[in-house]
Design a protein that fits this description.
127 residues; mainly beta; 48% strand
């Protein structure tokens, strides 16, 4: 019953910006943290950023910090990823994920800490 739907991906020139959205729905949805991951062709899925619903604590991969900003709108059950100063190496499919809302309450940085995933949205950054 939990569904995550990403949107906002597209084609952008290097140096440009995109804002990704992830809308969560489902009557049983009660995650503690939401995360953004990405996967480029031929590469492993990697952590981008995560945030907790309750207090808004955030965690970023160091290489993303300063360019990417994760935020959430609790009333809309939506998380966002604002991406600025995009680089060609940011090209990937970006996935939104939600944890189970139980067990260790932490902002996870590993994909196995999340159990619900969106379909992904393609971000392509041209040179």
């Amino acid at each position: 019953q939990v569904q995550l739907v990403e949107s906002g991906g597209g084609l952008v020139q290097a140096g440009g910006s995109l804002r990704l959205s992830c809308a969560a729905s489902g009557r049983t949805f009660r995650s503690y943290a939401m995360g953004w991951f990405r996967q480029a062709p031929g590469k492993e899925r990697e952590f981008v950023a995560a945030i907790s619903w309750s207090d808004g604590n955030t965690y970023y991969k160091d290489s993303m910090k300063g360019r990417f900003t994760i935020s959430r709108d609790n009333a809309k059950n939506t998380v966002y990823l604002q991406m600025n100063s995009l680089k060609p190496e940011d090209t990937a499919v970006y996935y939104c994920a939600a944890d189970a809302g139980h067990g260790p309450l932490r902002v996870g940085v590993f994909d196995y800490e999340y159990i619900y995933w969106g379909q992904g949205t393609q971000v392509t950054v041209s040179s």
